[in-house]
Amino acid sequence: MTRHIMAAVALLTALTSGCIVTTPTPLAEPAGATAPATLAPEATPLPAATPFPTPNEPAPETTFTAVGNVGMLSGTHGVEGKAIVAGLQTLIIKGFTFDGKGPLADARLVKGDDYENPGMVLLTLEQRPYEGEFLLFNIPSTVTAENVDRLVIYAPETGEVYAETTFE
């Protein structure tokens, strides 16, 4: 029987030779060192209120046309859109498209066919395609029915009208 035990020990020794199983132990902190502090979560700051835009001037009692009036743009260079007088000082163009080609153009409010003397130039168009864009304009109280009755997409360099509309 001793022979069997000696054979078993020899077998176990042969099987486990070269295999060292250890359990990792934590490293001791050097003397005087402190463990890194865990930062406590801070409360999420409340966002500041976004101030409501204030007008540069008081709103006029009337505008160049009735609020709610609409004009449809359709013309050369793919100009299209729906212009809406959305308030006493607000004009929007919904779904504005323009191919961006041709001479530099702008969106302007004019009286009659006096394209060269606008009541207001709303926007100089970039020479890039506009595809279904939403444009928003603040109209000052100086723009009245006496000096404006239509919206024009106009190329001042050539005098070409790409599109125009009156509001109804």
Reconstruct the topology from this structure.
Blueprint: H1 2-16, E1 70-74, E2 80-87, E3 90-98, E4 106-110, E5 120-124, E6 130-138, E7 150-155, E8 160-166
Antiparallel strand pairs: 1-2, 2-3, 3-6, 4-5, 4-7, 7-8
Class per helix and strand makeup:
mainly beta
Task: List how many beta strands DSSP finds.
Answer: 8
Radius of gyration: 39 Å
Largest sheet: 4 strands, antiparallel
Determine the fraction of residues in helical runs and give it as a percent range. under 10%
What do you see in this structure?
With 168 residues, the chain is mainly beta. The protein has a domain at 70-166. The protein contains 1 helix and 8 strands; from the N terminus they run H-E-E-E-E-E-E-E-E. The chain has one helix spanning 2-16; strands at 70-74, 80-87, 90-98, 106-110, 120-124, 130-138, 150-155, 160-166. The protein has a 4-stranded antiparallel beta sheet with strand order 1-2-3-6, with no helix packed on it. Strands 5-4-7-8 form a 4-stranded antiparallel beta sheet, with no helix packed on it. A hairpin with a 2-residue loop joins strand 2 and strand 3 (90-98). The protein is elongated, with a radius of gyration of 39 Å. The model has no long low-confidence stretch (mean pLDDT 81).
